[in-house]
Fold this sequence. Notes:
The complex is a heterodimer of chains A (about 350) and B (about 350).
Chain A: H1 2-13, E1 20-26, H2 30-46, H3 52-65, E2 67-69, E3 72-76, H4 80-99, H5 105-117, H6 119-132, E4 134-136, E5 139-143, H7 147-161, H8 169-182, E6 184-186, E7 189-193, H9 197-229, H10 233-267, E8 269-271, E9 275-279, H11 283-299, H12 305-318, E10 320-324, H13 341-349
Helix pairs in contact in A: 2-3, 2-12, 3-4, 4-13, 6-7, 6-13, 7-8, 8-9, 9-10, 10-11, 11-12
Chain B: E1 4-11, E2 18-26, E3 29-34, E4 42-46, E5 51-52, E6 61-64, E7 70-73, H1 76-82, H2 87-95, H3 101-130, H4 133-150, E8 153-154, H5 159-178, H6 180-183, E9 192-197, E10 205-207, E11 212-216, H7 217-222, H8 226-241, H9 244-263, H10 268-281, H11 287-303, H12 310-321, H13 328-333, H14 338-351
Parallel strand pairs in B: 9-11
Antiparallel strand pairs in B: 1-2, 1-7, 2-3, 3-4, 5-6, 6-7, 8-9, 10-11
Helix pairs in contact in B: 3-9, 5-8, 8-11, 8-12, 9-10, 11-14
Amino acid sequence: MSDILSEFVNNTQNEQRIRTVHEVEFRGTTEEYFGIWIVNAILGILTLGIYSAWAKIRNKKYFYGNTFIDNHNFDYHAKGPQILIGRIIVVLILAGLRFLPRYSLELYMVFYALVILSVGLIVSRALRFNARMSSYRNVRFNFSGGAGAAFLRYVIYPFLALFTLNLTKPYVTKSQNTYTTQNHKYGDRYFDFDADVGEYYGPFFAMIGFGILLFIVLAFILGALMEISSGSTFQLAVQSFGPFYVIMTYFVIRLIYKAAVRNIIFNNAILDNKHEFISTISASKYIYIIITNTLLAILTLGLMIPWGRIRLARYLAKNTQIIAGGDLDGYTSDIIETHGVTAAEYADMEGFDIDIGI
Amino acid sequence: MSIISITGDIYENQSSYSRPCTLKVRDNQLMIQYDDLEQAPAYICKLDELRIDPPLGSIRRKVHLPDGRVFETDDLEAVNDIYPSNFWKRIAKTERKGWHIIPIALVTPFLAFGLYRLLVPILVSFGMALTPDIALYSIDKNTMKSLDKFVMKQSEISHDKRVEVQKIFNKLLLARNESPEQLSTNKVFKYSLNFRNSGALGPNAFALPGGTIVITDELILEFPDEDVIAAVLAHEIGHVEHQHSLQQIYRALGMAGMVTMIAGDAGPLLEDVLLEGSAILSLSHSRKHELQSDNYSYELLKLADYQPDGLIQFFDKMDEIQTLPKDGEWMMTHPVGEKRISNIRDKMKADGISPRALTD
């Protein structure tokens, strides 16, 4: 009640504060992106992977550059040599982890502990690098989250959640989302984020319930197939791929939670105390797109990957809006220097989900 | 020389505030004229002081002025006129849609496959050389732990029978140690024989990279003939000596790494499928590995004074009982083929050993 009241008072007091809804638009096309993607792939092969650093940039630049709000696009600014050096250092670290124990187990333990301890540093630096390399309307994003806070949210909390059979995962997710969102800045203005953990529990239980349901259905289908195929070689296939189906079920139901979390992040974030965001992706449509993308990619030896990526970007953009509580052109960047590409590459290779992901 | 005019917007340094303007270029000189001001074009800088973003698809081009202002335009052709001919211009030209993309697209999967064939073996041998023995033992330990938790139960075979099988195993290891140059690598494996009861795996035996070998109760009960047991165990020792499991692990890793390297990040589900799928596939051995282990088994059996045709007997019997539902697993992880049987038969013929009558 008080929220509505205060908003009403606010609105009547500042008449000039006009709220404008901007749709997020994605203007990339498969025809165009396919050429970029295939040239990236073939040069990646011919240079034994070295070109992949530049390929990553062209890729990101293409998606950022085709994402529009209010007829202005995003941009990505990292440079090829930066990414390449980052990757080389990461490969050396990973090789070190494998190589060290041959010489000294103690040294290996120390090194390994250091890597675990630096997860916080890696996550925070990766987020910072990514933010600082991204811009909208000539103004860079920034990230000011600390390493200690990241360590707590990405190592300690998930570890503690294990003791609750992961039933407290929504709390972990919320704390991670709060960390990543609240510490992001656009220019010199902060994002804010305040979500109720109850919002996470809905989709979390939906994921578990759906998982159990799917598992039962699957067991029935597999059982029936076993009955029908009894004695034939087909049965071997059914039996042997059983575990594979189970793992895939797990991957699929995880997407339910992922889709919901994206909505929660956008719907509870606010920039500069006045610009709000809306995300309305539906878990079923999201999963449908990702499953069909994956199947087509496999069936075409990867050649349909670009089509799938454009399709997903289009869907995400179509379901995202900005409610601007004022002008979007009154911002200035507040950073100049940027380091930490190694951390970003490490996080990239180790699969941390750190993209801003409009 | 003619004047090139490019219309667009200009951003102040580090600011999101922009206004429409026209850039004019004449003889290496860059001038700017604001659309909302009635004034003559003002000189800014020389053309080569500009930093222009490389072309990419049809996204807007940015021109960075030396004073930090940024000019942005949709007039891609006009920008291309002042953009130097360099590597990126050629890349962008290749990327543009056209018929030439089709052959590239058709060739790429084959090139990727070629690279896979070329690079992955190198990565595999590199990874194997760098893998410390300690890592092997911990792989064994952890795998056994999870298998014991989910798939296998304690053995119900009698103590005496177990001692019997253990003796066969020891005899084989002794024979292996006596001929190091032929049948053993210089790596030190911690060989151990483990007895387990497992409904799901049926009559089966498998080896982990560090030398842990598991034999199921079902196999021991199904095959009382000690030559068969010896043949199966020798075959598994072969997998260990040739480090087949480790090769498969690195092959799976190398493949996943290569795909992400070439295709960029593959997308949410596809990445999981690639990683998990290849890990699952890595559990099963390739035909080449099976033949290699068969050959190893053959040689080791001869040295240890066992009948070298134990595997043939094993295959024949497995073929008979294969149709039973719970025994399917073996065939998936150990592709049986006429080829493997005839391979052993050929060896025996060459060595002048006559095959025994099948014991039934």
